[in-house]
Design goal:
Blueprint (H helix, E strand, L loop, with lengths): L2 H19 L8 H11 L6 H12 L4 H22 L9 E2 L2 E2 L1 H5 L1 H24 L5 H15 L4 H10 L7 H26 L4 H28 L2 H4 L5 H4 L5 H5 L1 H19 L7 H11 L4
Antiparallel strand pairs: 1-2
Helix pairs in contact: 1-4, 2-6, 3-4, 3-9, 4-6, 4-9, 6-7, 7-9, 8-9, 9-10, 10-14, 14-15
Length: about 300
């Protein structure tokens, strides 16, 4: 499998849909549409929507029906990045090699752009659920997976503890809470929602959930590692921001070498979760290797 080409094709497919879904009308509030699109199309791996559609396909579902949910989860992820970059949070000037939203549109508009993407994501999922009455239940269930992962028992909860932990020495339990909620929760929800939309059976959903938990945590620990030894040109943002912001990370608690070993363990666990499904696991296994071992 040529993973890079497969990912490129999937990103193009998602971007084409995103371009259709995002509002562009020349109304008085046009500035907010521009700000939303700026961050959505500022680059990015489209990891979460790719995972959602891949899980739908994995269980034999219709990816066209899952597409609004895939785009919605990317909108939620992008809103979180816009807010993360604000001076009150991580205070970053660049994201994916481009000026952050608030540097282009101002802090007030950036806050509203994040709010708008979050709200529009739910408009999109609800609209998708109402298109076919026979599938309403599983689509509402998928929406619940995503909304919980994005909320106070998921991403926002993790961000809260991350913010409260700045300039403090925290234990491993607190760090795991931050990682599993701030980053991994939405990755897990993307895969679970995609599987639910595709009509997964209990075994498939359980295996994909185990897979997602391992790559979700592995992905975040890799981010922590790259913030120390990554290439700024490849990352599109400055490294060392975690240390500069006095944030606890896996390497700061366990050391760099132990962190790399942990990522390898999580990778192996993710493969073990799905290898029993044979050939149809090929994409997920290749993607896991790419995500948790990238650029170090």
């Amino acid at each position: 499998m040529n993973l890079q080409q497969v990912l490129k094709d999937k990103i193009t497919y998602i971007d084409q849909a995103m371009n259709i879904y995002l509002p562009k009308e020349d109304y008085l509030q046009k500035e907010i549409f521009d700000a939303m699109s700026y961050s959505i199309f500022a680059g990015g791996k489209r990891l979460r929507p790719i995972l959602l559609l891949a899980a739908t396909e994995f269980v034999g579902g219709n990816i066209e029906e899952a597409l609004p949910f895939a785009c919605a989860v990317e909108m939620i992820h992008t809103y979180s990045l816009i807010h993360d970059d604000l001076p009150a949070m991580d205070n970053d000037d660049f994201r994916r090699g481009k000026p952050t939203n608030h540097k282009v549109y101002g802090e007030g508009m950036a806050i509203l752009a994040g709010d708008a993407l979050l709200n529009y994501a739910f408009e999109l999922m609800i609209e998708g659920a109402l298109k076919n009455k026979e599938d309403v239940y599983k689509k509402v269930l998928a929406t619940k997976e995503i909304s919980t992962a994005a909320g106070v028992y998921g991403m926002i909860g993790g961000q809260v503890v991350d913010l409260l932990s700045e300039n403090k020495k925290i234990d491993e339990e607190t760090l795991n809470f931050i990682h599993k909620n701030k980053t991994a929760a939405l990755i897990i929800a993307s895969i679970r929602a995609g599987a639910i939309l595709g009509g997964a059976d209990d075994e498939e959903l359980s295996s994909l959930t185990d897979f997602s938990k391992n790559i979700g945590l592995g992905f975040q620990i890799t981010d922590d590692i790259l913030d120390i030894i990554g290439d700024e040109k490849k990352l599109g943002k400055k490294i060392g921001s975690d240390q500069q912001n006095h944030k606890a990370t896996y390497p700061s608690i366990h050391g760099l070498e132990a962190s790399i070993q942990k990522v390898q363990q999580l990778f192996e666990n993710s493969i073990h979760s799905i290898e029993k499904f044979g050939e149809k696991s090929e994409f997920f296994m290749a993607l896991s290797d790419f995500l948790v071992k990238r650029d170090y």
